[in-house]
Amino acid sequence: MRILFIVNKIEEGKDGVGDYTLKLAEQFRLHSHETFFLSSSASEKEQRSDAFFVVGNWGWHSISFIMEITDKLKPDWVIVQYVPFAFHKRGFPLWLCALLIRFRFGRVKIAIFFHEIADRFYFPSGKRILSSLLNRIIGNLLYSLSHKSWASIAFYHRYFMINPDLIPIGSNIKLRGVSEKKRVNDIITLSTFGIRNALYFKILIDAAEILVGKDLGFNIKVLGTIPEKEQTISLIASKGLTDHFYFSGFVTEGQIELELISSDIFINLNGADHLGRGGTCLKSGSLAAGFAAGLSVIGFRGDMTDEVLRNGDILLLCDETSGMCLAKKIEMLLTDSSLRNRLQDSAIRFYEKELRWPLIYSRWMLGLTKVN
Fold first, then answer.
1. Contact between 38 and 67 (Cβ < 8 Å)
2. Predicted structure pTM score
3. pLDDT of residue 183
4. What does residue 275 show for φ and ψ, rounded to 5 degrees?
5. CA 355, CA 92: separation in Å to the nearest integer?
6. Which of 4, 5, 99, 292 has its CA 20 to 30 A from that of 82?
7. Which residues is 10 bridged to in the sheet?
8. Contact at 8 Å (CB) between 217 and 265?
9. What residues contact residue 15 under an 8 Å CB cut-off, 6+ apart?
10. 286-289 contacts: CB < 8 A, separation 24 or more?
């Protein structure tokens, strides 16, 4: 099978959807399929490969170039990794609908994975409501034009007239194996990465301040880049927490792997707002990496949280996005080694059952091969 992936960016370690696409393509190649990529930008390494094509900015003007590449490659499938704001700065990629119509006339099979579909409704902002409605209309039009579609979490079903199948996001870090965790001292290590919201990181700082006051031994490794880094480090210093935090800065996949498997607890900082919108869910590659590393996982409950993420069984969920609630969950794991070990075992079992890349590939292939 010959597959052409259309994805916004291919810059390894810098774009989650791009990383997902590369790892999915690797699974296809392991099963003797050919994979090609068409993106708006790519790293120098990818651009040196004949399998990568860079279109520049997306828009109506890019349709002819995309059709030229498609006619040249003659793929069995074109797979779109869809995020509305990746293909149009305001989230309205009507040109993509036109492209799929061209594919349909050319008898090209189209699959779409909806990483995101629409902006949320924010009352009383009429502009945001109209924007979200248009996002949803375009998403449903793309769904109707494709031969096969998926989304990562059940929450996205509320955006569609007909629900796409679900495939959770796999780990964006390749973990070659989980080593037995050996306690060499009383300091337990917490890790987090994939942070996009400075507000949620402040909640972690608040939790750390509470825990230090209880004289509990712990360190927090912050992997990868973070928003508002200078202000965040200054805040940590002002609270006397510098010795408890380690910032890696940008790290390679191999370095993140080593940091994760030497940790004990993973904190997924995808919080929910005051209306419960958001939360920890299976659209997060960093969450999948925490499970893959065999760590006790802490997250936040919100309307996007999947039912399969059972509190106390698979992970610990904070019922509110606050430093106090997060500190309570961390303290439970710091002081109860049996709970910590049980959740580490549960993490590995959950990863093996739901999130392994070979399993994700098999779900993709099941969907593709059902289409005539």
1. no
2. 0.91
3. 47
4. -100, 5
5. 31
6. 292
7. 42
8. no
9. 8, 9
10. 286/172, 286/173, 286/193, 286/194, 287/194, 288/168, 288/169, 288/170, 288/171, 288/172, 288/351, 288/355, 289/171, 289/172, 289/173, 289/175, 289/193, 289/256, 289/260
- Residue owning tokens 């490969």: 49
Across the range 321-338, mean pLDDT stands at 96
Domain boundaries, the chain: 2-166, 188-354
State yes or no: pLDDT of 184 exceeds 60.
no
Neighbours of 227 (CB within 10 A): 13
Residue 78: DSSP 8-state: E
What CATH number does domain 2-166 carry, 2.10.220.10, 3.90.1150.10, 3.10.290.10, 3.40.50.2000? 3.40.50.2000
- Give the C-alpha separation, 65 to 54, whole Å: 10
Taking only the tens place, the pLDDT of each residue in 82-104 is 999 999 998 999 999 999 999 99
52 vs 41: CA distance, rounded Å: 10
Distance CA 13, CA 32 (A): 25
For the chain, give percent helix, strand, coil, nearest 5.
45, 20, 35
Q: What CATH number labels 188-354?
A: 3.40.50.2000
